[in-house]
Design brief:
The structure holds three protein chains of three kinds. Chain A is mostly helical. Chain A has a single domain, classed as Helix Hairpins. Chain A is built from three helices and no strands. In chain A, α2 runs antiparallel to α3. By secondary structure, chain B is mostly helical. In chain B, a hairpin with a 5-residue loop joins β2 and β3. In chain B, 30% of the residues are buried. Chain C is 70% helix and 0% strand. The termini of chain C are far apart. The chains are: A mainly alpha, B mainly alpha, C mainly alpha. The interface between A and C is large, with 46 and 50 residues.
């Protein structure tokens, strides 16, 4: 039963990633694209944790933590850049 | 200044660092506790000069209660936003509200703004320069704007004030 | 693996996956930038929280010891998600992104951009 649930949730997250990709490509404004990219980071964390559960290992935890940290920093850097045209003030 | 306060300029941070180190390694062995303790002493010593004075946490128990209240609100907010998002788009009436805030310290304003962003259909967008107004974007605005303002002021701002007693 | 652990883990996974999907549907369907920010910041914290919680229970049961390091990711995301949303909302205001027509008080964007206190409706035209 758990295998079925993991695969179902994997499919759901993949659909979510495709919707984000559509917004990333189409998004009328720059900010839309950054929001889409940020959401893609979060969804990929979910996908990696799911892959770890599928393989019954917690090795992928570090990868998920790194993506969480880098995703936050890069989103804020993008935001600051279009806010001021400069990352470090 | 005693030797303990000189070695541990930020005791709460040191404790948190040790806990995070042990959680990262998923182990309570003696080696990890010693290594974590060494890191928990050295890192605050290096970072202490960067510290900006912040208001003290006066009532830790109320802070814990506040965290659980906000967690409950986050779950409720998610269900509400999910229903709005999946339903017809015509029902969504967004709007901006300016909320007058009485908090002085930046830490408290940060906590309030973060709470507002995490809870029911509201998103803090901007703070005025004199720190008196918080601009909030509301996903589904009730007919009376005062409802949103009084909810945020009575439920969250007063709780934060009580925690820090200012 | 006992049956009930499997049931709890599956239910948490399905809840989490649903919320992640709803967040992305919000990003896809909503009409303007400010509304689109609502979907991801809210839905993904609970969605990811559900998935990480189920992973925590499953790994603890599978390995035989308490595995709580997934809590670190949840904690990190709960702290950082509002900061990202706030910065992006500021950036959207700075770029003068159009709000959707139904938005009330959209005149506040002009005062908020310059970090000024709001102007009341009556003297909005005169200033």
């Amino acid at each position: 039963m758990l295998e079925t649930a993991v695969i179902c949730v994997g499919i759901m997250i993949s659909i979510a990633l495709i919707l984000n990709l559509w917004r990333l490509l189409v998004g009328p404004d720059l900010v839309d694209r950054i929001v889409a990219l940020d959401t893609m980071y979060i969804n990929s964390i979910a996908l990696i944790m799911l892959f770890g559960m599928y393989n019954k290992t917690s090795l992928y935890f570090e990868a998920a933590l790194l993506i969480a940290m880098l995703g936050f920093v890069s989103s804020v850097a993008f935001g600051k850049y279009i806010l001021r045209g400069d990352i470090i003030e | 200044m005693s030797i303990i306060t000189r070695l541990l300029p930020m005791p709460a941070h040191s404790f948190l660092l040790l806990i995070v180190w042990l959680m990262l390694n998923v182990s309570f062995s003696l080696g990890h506790i010693i290594l974590g303790s060494v890191l928990a002493v050295i890192i605050p010593l290096l970072c202490a000069p960067l510290q900006v004075p912040q208001p003290k946490l006066k009532r830790p128990l109320r802070a814990v209660r506040y965290v659980f209240m906000v967690l409950g609100d986050i779950v409720v907010a998610n269900v509400q936003v999910a229903i709005l998002v999946v339903g017809p788009m015509r029902r969504i009436k967004p709007g901006f509200v300016a909320i007058p805030i009485d908090l002085e310290e930046t830490l408290l304003i940060t906590i309030l703004a973060s709470t507002v962003t995490m809870t029911p259909g509201t998103l803090s967008a901007e703070l005025s320069k004199d720190k008196n107004w918080l601009y909030v974007h509301v996903l589904n605005m009730p007919d009376n704007e005062e409802e949103v303002i009084s909810l945020i002021k009575n439920r969250y701002e007063s709780a934060i004030k009580e925690i820090f007693q200012c | 693996m006992s049956f009930w652990v499997e049931v709890i883990v599956s239910i948490l996974l399905i809840i989490g996956g649903t919320f992640v999907l709803v967040g992305s549907i919000g990003l896809f369907r909503l009409k303007d930038v400010y509304c689109r920010l609502h979907g991801p910041t809210k839905a993904t914290t609970v969605g990811l929280g559900g998935i990480l919680l189920s992973s925590m229970i499953y790994m603890s049961h599978h390995n035989g010891y308490l595995s709580i390091h997934e809590l670190l990711i949840t904690l990190f995301l709960v702290i950082t998600a509002p900061v990202t949303a706030h910065i992006l909302a500021k950036a959207a205001m700075h770029h003068k992104v159009k709000t959707m027509e139904a938005t009330r008080n959209s005149h506040m964007v002009t005062t908020a951009r310059e970090q000024r206190p709001p102007v009341s409706d009556n003297d909005a035209g005169s200033s």
